[in-house]
Amino acid sequence: MHGVGGTTPEEMLRDPRTERITGDTTAAVYRRTEDADAEDRPGEYRDEPVPEAYCWSNLTSGNGARALWLILLPFMVANLAHWTRPASDGRRRMVRLHGVLVRLVALSLTVLLVGAVCEVALDLIAWQCGGSQECAGGRDWLAFMAAGPDGSGGWWSRPGRRLALAAVIPAAATGLLWWLSHRTWSAYESQQPLDTTVTEDDPKANGRPALSLPGFWYGKRHVARLRAAHTAAGFLTIGAMLAAASTRYDRKPGGSTALDAFGWALEGLLLACGAWVLYVVCRRGRKDTRADNDDESLSVTALPGVALGITVLAAVHGAWSRPGWVSSQTLPGDETFGVVAVFQGALVVALGVVGVALYRDRPVERTALGGFAPAAVAMLACALGGVLSGGVAQRVGDWLDGPATPGSPDAPIAGPPTLLTWQASIIPLLLVFVLVLMGWFAFKLWRRAKALRENVNSMYPESLPDESRSRRIGGAIARAALTDEAPWLVATVAVVTLVLGGGAVLGTVLTDQVPGQAADGAGAVLNGAADTVQALGSWMVGFGFLLFLTWGRRAYRDPSARRTIGILWDVGTFWPRSAHPFAPPCYAERAVPDLAWRMAMWTDKEPTRRLVISGHSQGSVLAASAVWQLDPETRRQIALLTYGSPLERLYARWFPAYFGPAQLEALDKDVHCWSNLWRLTDPIGGPVRLQPVDGHRVDHGPLRDPVDYGRTKERPLPAPILAHGDYQADPAFDEERDGLLARLRIPREGLTGVPQQPALAGQAVAGQGGTDRAVAGQAEGAAPGRSSG
């Protein structure tokens, strides 16, 4: 199993001739051509393992167009907040409350981003620019809807008709999100899992109640419910903005009584359908005890269509003829952004309270942020949603008003809502804080690297010290250790964002002016500073949005960028879509069933068969997840080899309810044997920190990196610092792999007396006797010989 960067089967098997054994072009199992028919020649493989490679990189990479998935990053981060829940012992109500809060955060993000598209299409273009002859008259594509100062113009110049036409854009965006969610489910997440019988109340599930359950990697009904609710919420957001404009005019003196009555009925329908959406989102969460393959009820599947019908009624109501209606200033209903911001802040605080309560009930060692992780991750999701929504609105506003500043007396349009300008203005302050924080980490890195130089020399007592060599090795170890500081960096940024966001809402409520105007009369220095942060924020929020897409495209085209950015992306898309149905698809819902079915079917053909599954980096997480899906008897036929694995360092700390110490201990007891290789220079992988079982310990390391300090007779050229890659180049890798193959011949209860032999660094287990036939989930870059495992 390869890691995040991905590789070809030829590189993994070290043979230019490979054949696909099972699978398709998206994910498949490969063998060397000479081993393709190994089962038909059992005599030749009686004591030889058959290497196989499972390639899954096409599940997470592709052409540059997939960089547009980064627009869905706030949805992915919100979905991630669901899985960072602290471990719990039977507090089902608190666990359900946690899930409801996260799903409400996810729903608010859908409303926020659809509202941002409405802000651009309905407010800035149709309402403000279309109502200004100066703005629309100079643009051919808008001239048909340009209205004069007295409301004169063509048929489309009426405000309600302009809004009805512009509503097609956010409606199409909502429909696109629905289509992408439905399509990616069919393409990536519709693989049926193994049919096992373990339930949440079964004693066999103790310590591993989730990942071992048959429905964990298949939640069709749950995703369908959320998809229907979020699609309906998007349409209702559009309908609410359309209705807000028309009903406000109808209730003015001289308005039409019939239209006013219809407006009241329309608002009632919007509220009723909104309550329906909230009920669907809050009523039911995931259910993992079985594959959730049932069809949803008609009341849920009809929800998007009902919401779309109400939106069409709102568009027809607004497009009705209203002589004398002209558009000015901003579109009524812009207060939505303030309401969403306050709602999100309250949800984040509530998540923090619930998370701490769960953590205190069952504290798990090394849990990230002590229960505050869900709140911090949810806050980052809301901040990303604010950057995307504000960035689009600010850029379009600056483009439409030409050289003028939006909201200024000489500008043709009023510009985006005041809150979005305030939120953009806090970005420079947040960036300054982050730069100061990064400077502090850089200082700590320098001090730590300097202190490690002497330790590096002690790691290679047989070599003559070299100051520059020790400095590079010490720097690599110090940089790798920064990963363990990530929780506090995330928490600090989340808290500062929450405080500054609250200040932006408060500034909007108290002044109802943009920062530059609010600071008028407060002194030249303060006024200049307010104008500066407002201008910088407006520019930076738009630039950040473009940079976002640029990085995403590069991550899919440049392998080096893929490895750098990929780990964060692949951690996020590893988890099923439990909170947000519009998040990028979960590749593990295809990869884990693939691996589980392959292992179960292969070992079922002959009960005496044994199997070693090895995984690098994210591949080790997929391997562990697939092993959990097998029945206990099959697990006893499997040995597990992980290297550069983030199982404890990232997953156990951030997702303690699913990869905590209890779950990892259960995995170690279930499989026949397990070895984990790690380095101090690895910024991603690390030890799994399990106690020895039957005299065998899982962790083997830290491996020396580089293998040799200087030039040796065996390696006359300087050895590179490998960090997270090329574990198979270390002699300890071959020793551990061959040891696992040998240990598979020994019954689990007989492993206590297996002798322990030292590896180059740490310990490796050398089993006794020959090996069974085994199919190895081959590590990327493993040796080509049949004895390689």
UniProtKB/TrEMBL annotation:
Compositionally biased residues, Low complexity: 753-766
SUPFAM superfamilies linked: alpha/beta-Hydrolases
Key words, A-Z: Membrane, Transmembrane, Transmembrane helix
Keyword Transport: no
Biased composition annotated in UniProt, kind: Basic and acidic residues: 11-22, 31-46, 694-712
Statement: the UniProt record of this protein carries the keyword Cytoplasm: no
Residue intervals passing through the bilayer: 66-83, 95-117, 163-180, 228-249, 261-281, 302-320, 340-359, 371-393, 422-443, 488-510, 533-552
Stretch list, region Disordered: 1-46, 693-712, 753-789
Name of the protein in its database record: Integral membrane protein
Source organism per UniProt: Streptomyces albiaxialis
